[in-house]
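Retry 2 of 3 after timeout on previous attempt. Resubmitting structure tokens to design endpoint.
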């Protein structure tokens, strides 16, 4: 079956599934960005405690909270990727959607980014 003979319903379902993956990845990246912001707050609080000579407990807590948000973003990306793949097999069991490799690579990069940044945030101190 060639691409031009596909039914419009099948094409719409494939495109909706693709948009769903992008929404999952967008949510994951937003969580990771918030995690980085929280971790950077810890760096700011460490600097502030050095200049004011006061011990701030929140500095250490923000590092772990930021790392947890980064890992949560990676988990969201993994869950979204697996759900979209499962729905993709339901939409067209005979073959996968065309051009799907780019989406798989993008999802993998987002997952690796989250894990790598979480490792960096924890090892940074």
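Retry 2 succeeded. Sequence:
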């Amino acid at each position: 079956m060639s691409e031009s003979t596909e039914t419009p319903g099948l094409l719409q379902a494939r495109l909706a599934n693709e948009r769903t993956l992008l929404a999952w990845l967008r949510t994951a990246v937003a969580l990771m960005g918030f995690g980085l912001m929280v971790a950077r707050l810890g760096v700011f609080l460490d600097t502030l405690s050095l200049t004011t000579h006061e011990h701030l407990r929140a500095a250490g807590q923000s590092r772990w909270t930021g790392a947890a948000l980064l890992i949560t973003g990676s988990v969201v990306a993994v869950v979204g990727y697996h759900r979209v793949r499962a729905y993709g097999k339901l939409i067209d069991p005979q073959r996968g959607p065309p051009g799907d490799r780019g989406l798989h690579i993008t999802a993998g990069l987002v997952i690796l980014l989250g894990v790598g940044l979480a490792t960096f945030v924890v090892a940074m101190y």
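Attempt log closed. The helical segments are 8-52, 58-91, 101-123.
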